[in-house]
C-alpha cells in the first residue's frame, strides 16, 4: 500500500482524487481547509483515508500537518505528494485589493511550495517518491479579469519545471497536471470575489459577462473524476509524464496561443470573456 499526502481534499478535484486513491488501495492523508468538508469526506471513505485540517498559508499549520503524517508513517516513507489546494480570485487588476492578490499567491504558490518542502524528507525515506502539482490551462494562457489566478498558475508551471530538474538526481519524479475548465466549487468562489469588488462603470459590463462565463464553466466543465484519473496515472505509471493536459481546450488553446500574434489573441479572448 503506497502512502499519499494530498492537499485540497475538501472538494472538487481534491476530494475526487482522495476517494479514488483510497478505493484503489492507497493510504491517503487527505488535507482539508474546512473541517466540515473533512467530515463529509471521512463519511465516504474507509480507515485507509485520514483527514487532516491545514491552512497552507500558515507555516505552523503546515508543519503540524507534516508532523502528523510523519508520526503516522513511522518507519515507512511517503510515496507521493499531490498539491491540489488552490483558490481562484477574479476581477480587473486595477480594482483587485492587494490583499486578495497576496492571498491568491499565498494559497496557490507559496502554500504549495511550503507543503512540498517539508514533505521531501518523507519522500526520500523509502523508495524515491513522486510529486504532482495541479496547475491549469490558465498557467499557459491568460485572459482579462483573471490576472491574479493566471499569475499563480504560471508560477506553478515554473516551480514544477524547476523542481523536476532539482529532484531528478534523487529519482523523485515531478508531474504537472494541466486541466481545462473543470466543474468544481472554485468557480462559485471566484464569482464571490467578483461580487465583492467596488463598483466601476469602466468594468461593469465586462465583469457581468465574465461572471456569466464562470457560471458556464462551473456547469459545463469536465468532471473532477477525469482529473483524478489522470493524477492516479501520474502516481502509478512506471514512466510518468512531465505534463498532463486534460481536455481538448487544454491541448489546443495553448498551441494556438503560441502561433498567433498577441493582439489577435487579445481580440479572440475578449469575445470569450466579454
Task: Summarize the structure in words.
- With 274 residues, this protein is α/β, with parallel strands linked by helices.
- It has a single domain, classed as NAD(P)-binding Rossmann-like Domain (Rossmann fold), CATH 3.40.50.
- The chain has a 7-stranded parallel sheet, sandwiched between helices.
- Helix 1 packs across helix 8.
Lay out the secondary structure:
Blueprint: E1 3-6, H1 12-23, E2 27-32, H2 35-43, E3 49-53, H3 59-73, E4 80-83, H4 98-123, E5 130-134, H5 147-167, E6 173-179, H6 186-195, H7 204-220, H8 224-236, E7 243-246, H9 248-259, H10 262-273
Helix pairs in contact: 1-8, 3-4, 4-5, 6-7
CATH topology call? Rossmann fold
Work out the number of β strands: 7
Q: Residue ranges: pLDDT <50 for 5 or more in a row?
A: none
Q: How much strand?
A: 5-15%
Q: Shape from CA axes?
A: globular
Structural class: alpha/beta
Report the mean per-residue pLDDT as an integer: 94
* Overall number of structural domains: 1
Give the helix proportion (percent range). 40-55%
SSE string: EHEHEHEHEHEHHHEHH
Rounded Rg: 19 Å
The CATH architecture is 3-Layer(aba) Sandwich
CATH class annotation: Alpha Beta
Top keywords for this entry?
single chain; globular; 274 residues; alpha/beta; 54% helix; 10 helices; 7 strands; Rossmann fold; seven-stranded parallel β-sheet
Give the gist of this structure.
The chain has ten helices and seven strands.
